[in-house]
Specification:
CATH topology of the largest domain: Rossmann fold
Largest sheet: 6 strands, parallel
Strand content: 15-25%
Order of helices and strands: EHHEEHEHEEHHEHEHEHEHEHEHH
CATH class of the largest domain: Alpha Beta
Shape: globular
Structural class: alpha/beta
Mean pLDDT: 92
Strand order of the largest sheet: 3-2-1-4-5-6
Helix content: 25-40%
Number of domains: 2
Low-confidence stretches: 355-360
Distance between the termini: 64 Å
Length: 360
């Protein structure tokens, strides 16, 4: 059975839905507008979401989901097949593959779902009943809109695409962050959250740029800059902050994803590269300063968020992020610490008295 994107799906016939987006932070967050819309379209359906560890924290407690199915990142073939059996036995009425990767494809193939929707990808489209192109000749399409097109193919008729969403911190997590603020006497200070990680070298602004920016931020009165990142960024954090100080504090490797959101939600501004924490910031009311290298804001800008986007107009952008034409990633590295610093002062709406020359 091959359908097309204009096929009408009877909502009354859809009782069980499986959504697949295995990873990563930003990609999972950017599916949540589709989740909201699907719940409105199928209010009585049972909706499950398949995701990998540790990204379950992004969708657990989502009121629009009935179940979160979690797979480990790596599984032996026999164990993978064992975990597929409950999905196969469920016989979902509708499956939407937001991911498009090989693992998601295998889940889709063996799911026995009655209607499968996915992107029109080479060699893969034949396994889905409805497929849509991931890219358009008319120009860039934001990732949220790309995901939402699959929801529309399922019959969603919502006009304006909803905001992105992420569960707030639990009471225990909130108390932990509150204790951190109280212990460090941050109550009366403006918080600047700086993501020092990158995820890959094409998003890495560089240690020198970060060091220069932090030296400027530490001179802004009545603020504290909180560094965030994963455990893999711990060595970088130590290089940037070799000794404790009161104006810069490292939470690198110490927070789960919901706690990261809680810290950001209390901040005057979030800043960092196009990355997962930037999309977490978009689920809060905190303004954002984001710098883009090989990727385009048209594809990955913070969705419906107050944001200042910094980028350089190199003709080679966007690229496949595998090999740099110039071999030095200058599209990102030439965004100067001074540009980012000025954007922070403006976006955080710091008093004019803060906007003074600083030592770099």
């Amino acid at each position: 059975m091959i359908l097309n994107a204009r096929s009408r799906i009877d909502p009354a016939s859809i009782e069980k839905i499986l959504l697949i987006r295995l990873r990563r932070i930003g990609d999972v967050v950017m599916t949540t507008p589709s989740v909201r819309a699907l719940r409105e379209r199928f209010p009585d359906a049972e909706i499950a979401y398949l995701v990998e560890e540790p990204y379950r924290e992004l969708v657990e407690q989502n009121p629009d989901l009935d179940e979160v199915i979690v797979f480990p990142r790596r599984l032996p073939v026999a164990e993978f097949r064992r975990r597929l059996k409950p999905i196969r036995d469920k016989r979902y009425d509708l499956l939407i593959d937001f991911h498009g990767g090989p693992r998601a494809l295998w889940v889709s193939i063996f799911s026995r779902a009655r209607i499968k929707i996915g992107h029109r990808l080479k060699y893969k489209h034949v396994f889905y009943h409805i497929t849509l192109p991931r890219t358009l000749d008319t120009g860039p399409v934001h990732s949220v809109e790309n995901h939402f097109s699959l929801a529309r193919a399922a019959g969603v008729e919502m006009g304006e695409i909803p905001a992105v969403w992420m569960p707030p911190a639990s009471p225990e997590e909130g108390a932990r962050i509150e204790s951190l603020f109280r212990q460090n006497d941050w109550g009366e200070r403006r918080i600047i959250v700086l993501h020092i990680g990158a995820g890959n070298r094409f998003r890495d602004w560089g240690l020198d740029n970060l060091r220069c920016l932090i030296s400027k931020l530490r001179n802004v009165p009545e603020t504290v800059t909180i560094l965030i990142g994963g455990p893999e960024d711990s060595v970088r954090a130590q290089a940037l902050l070799p000794a404790p100080e009161t104006s810069v504090f490292s939470c690198v490797g110490r927070l789960n994803l919901r706690e990261v959101r809680e810290i950001i939600s209390r901040a005057a501004v979030f800043l960092g590269p196009d990355s997962g924490p930037m999309h977490i910031a978009a689920t809060t009311d905190t303004p954002i300063v984001a710098y883009f290298g090989p990727t385009l804001p048209a594809h990955f800008a913070p969705w419906r968020a107050e944001a200042m986007r910094l980028e350089k107009p190199f003709a080679c952008r966007p690229c496949r992020q595998r090999k740099c034409t110039f071999k030095d990633f200058r599209c990102l590295l030439t965004i100067s610490p001074e540009e980012v610093f000025k954007a922070v002062l403006h976006t955080a709406r710091l008093p004019a008295s803060f906007n003074t020359p600083t030592r770099s």
